[in-house]
Amino acid sequence: MTLTLTPAASAPNAPSWERACAVTDLEPSWGEAALVRMKQIALFLLSPSEVYAVCHRDPHTDAYVMARGIVGSRGDRPTIASPLHKEVYDLGTGECFTDSTLFLRTFQTRIVGGFIEVAV
Fold first, then answer.
1. Structural domains of the chain, ranges and CATH numbers in brackets
2. Long-range Cβ contact pairs of 37-41 (< 8 A, separation 24 or more)
């Protein structure tokens, strides 16, 4: 019997990397919304090599507004505050600092050839 291992990237539920936009399309510390594989995603460029992606839908109100949130930090953790009720979320983990019952979905990002790619 021969056992063949399948790479994790080709597993049925493994995320695929999708190009969202050019790095130059984003302004530092300002969010932009992108439609990636029919998902509304908010992108945030914090430095030339640091990009975060979260669900554009506000978990508290279900409104698609997170790209208009206020970028900040809690210690060394970058955050986004909802523009509606100011709940504060960790951009890396999606944890809500102001209401432990809320969670903001996050997506992995990478920069390839000057373009931002998101794992969806």
1. 27-119 (2.102.10.10)
2. 37/120, 39/120, 40/64, 41/107, 41/118, 41/120
